[in-house]
Amino acid sequence: MSKLKKSSIFIYIIQFLGMSLGAALAAFALEEFLVPNSILDGGVAGIAIIISKLSPFKLGLLTFLINIPFLYVGYKNLGKSFLIKALYSVTLFSILLEVFQEAPPVTDDILLAMVYGGVVLGIGVGLIIKCGGCVDGTESVAIVISKNTSFSVGQVVLIFNLLIFAVAGFVFGIDRALYSLLTYFITYNLIDLVNDGLEKVKSVMIISENGSSIASKIYKRLGRTCTSLEGSGLITGTKSILYVVVTRLEVAEIKRIVDEEDQSAFVTISDVSEIVGNHIKSTKAMHNVKKNSKKIT
Predict the structure, then answer these.
(1) List of E strands, 113-236
(2) CA distance 37 to 134
(3) Which domain holds residue 285?
(4) Fewest Cβ atoms nearer than 10 Å: which of 53, 120, 140, 207?
(5) What is each CA distance from 15 to 39, 71, 223, 291, in whole angstroms?
(6) Rounded CA gap, 50 and 54, in Å?
(7) SS3 for 246?
(8) pTM for the full model?
(9) Do residue 168 and residue 266 come from a single domain?
């Protein structure tokens, strides 16, 4: 078995372990914090909670059954790999909902349930998404809707969840709907934190007269290569414009480098939502690229 194949299998195992842990955390949050206090999650879980409260059907079974058509839509748009991971995470999540249903709730304090339930749920769902799984198929439908309308995926999901919370207001009372909405925002932010973490990237643009020396130091210390352009200011004349993408932890070092080389430099720092293509992360990575290119030639 080749090293590449072994590495792929190892990554696959890690992903499924991550989805398993995420499913356990998400199910624990729902059954031990949120459901006993009539606080809803968004998406499929929210629909399942409402139906389970009004019927004899169990939450785990409803979650699985309601997700099936959504997963089919996801399969048509995202492929077989998505379906395998999503089906695994949804199935395990649904089973664990039944397991944790037998345990007594952690707290009956509504504020504690809202905050800690939202945090644990966000971490769990974030882990599942990070590993390529899914426990809420509504996003796959939102992708299809966004392709045919002017709404983004996030806007479609938000509208869908607001409708669920509105229904919850009639079923459980307006206070529970408002608590559910707050929980949703806590969960949403934790999902982002788990997926982006400290590796969330920033784009940095530096306008300086010493662009070459700044770029050299950035590469030497951080292993980041800069894209250099030439710009002309109305008053200041010709200057170098450097563009580089770094993690949030590296921003402070970028500032130190600029301060050392050119205190009059102009720097802008912005969030980056997505990167497409290869991005060299270290001098070691650059060394490997050069080494491989020599072998090819």
Answers:
(1) 201-208, 227-233
(2) 25
(3) 200-296
(4) 53
(5) 30, 19, 28, 30
(6) 6
(7) strand
(8) 0.71
(9) no
CA gap 38, 275 in Å, rounded? 39
List the pLDDT tens digit at each of the 297 positions of the chain: 566 566 778 888 898 999 999 999 999 999 999 999 988 888 888 899 999 988 899 999 999 999 998 888 878 777 788 888 889 999 999 999 999 988 899 998 999 999 999 999 999 988 988 888 888 878 777 767 776 777 766 677 788 888 888 888 888 889 888 999 899 888 888 887 777 665 567 899 999 988 899 999 999 888 888 988 888 777 777 889 999 988 777 888 899 899 988 888 999 998 887 676 655 454 444 444 444 434 433
Asked which of 197, 214, 244 is the last residue of a domain, the reply is 197
Decide which of 149, 182, 197 is a domain's last residue: 197
Instruction: Give every CB contact of residue 98 below 8 A, 6+ residues apart in sequence.
Output: 58, 59, 60, 61
